[in-house]
Each structure stands twice: as C-alpha cells, then as structure tokens.
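Chapter review: from sequence to fold.
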Amino acid sequence: MSESPIGVVTISDRASAGLYEDKGGPGIEAALAAIVATRWRPVRRLVPDEREAIEAALCELADVERCALILTTGGTGPSPRDVTPEATEAVCDRIMPGFGELMRTRSLMEVPTAILSRQIAGLRGRSLIVNLPGKPSAIRTCLDAVFPAVPYCLDLIGGYRLDTNPSVCVAFRPKG
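The token string follows.
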C-alpha cells in the first residue's frame, strides 16, 4: 500500500531564513501522526511571508505533488506580513468557510485573541487546503475541531481515501 502525500507548509520569514526553529510544521506532523490511520508522508515546504511564494508552494503541492490535503501554518494574523489567507484564496476554486468558522469558535474557548485569526480553507481541484495557526497547541486544537469532516470532504472532491484513528478522531462518513 502506498503512502498518501499530505502537504505541510510553514509560512514564516524567520524560519525560512534560518533564524527561528520551525515549530508549526512539526506540530502539524505530530497531530497527523496521532489522528491519521492511513499510511501517509509529509511533503514539506518552508516559505517566507510572501504571497507569491505561498501561492507557488500551494499550487505545486496540489498540482504537481498531488496532495489531496494541504495544511499551512502561520501567516493568518492581522499583521501586514500575514498574507496566507489571501494567497490561499487566490489559488482556490472555492472557499470552504465552515472550516475557519469552526476553528475560530473552538480556539475562542481557549484564548480570547483567537478572534484575530483569519485562517480559511478552500478547494483547488482535488485538494483541500486548510490554514492553521502557527502555535503547535493551537494547531492541534484546530485540527481536532475540523478533522472529523476532512476525510469525507476528500471523498467528495475525488481525493484519496484518508482514514482516522477512531480512538483519537472519529471521521464522519454517511452510511451507505
């Protein structure tokens, strides 16, 4: 059985310049290791907070690497350099607003500044792109909130089948 590629994109000026250790990408991978039961492999990208670089990484992961799931970390706040949502929206065919709404709602239960997060999700062909925060604990909070819907979303868009570890995350798929 082959491994399903999952795109993991860290967006950070400092980490891409080697000035700061990337904690977001490893945070995504640690969460996926617990949640996903299907054999998978990360396809990593580390880019600066530059819209063109983010767009290029997302397009390559969707169109060339054929990642049905692409998770980003970083660049979703209100600062002028935070352009991940704009880059995501630019490369997507359709936006999936429920993902961002649920991630913010769940995060607000832990920290009042979650309202400042602008993360979104969208579809590019047969790929689901989900923006996550940069902090590993916030990444896990957000993935725990939305992941029950991810496998069925991938089914609906013609992506590969992704199964979850039911002791960690019960994926919803309609009966029949």
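Two observations follow directly from the output. The CA atoms of residues 52 and 94 lie 19 Å apart. The two ends are 25 Å apart (CA to CA).
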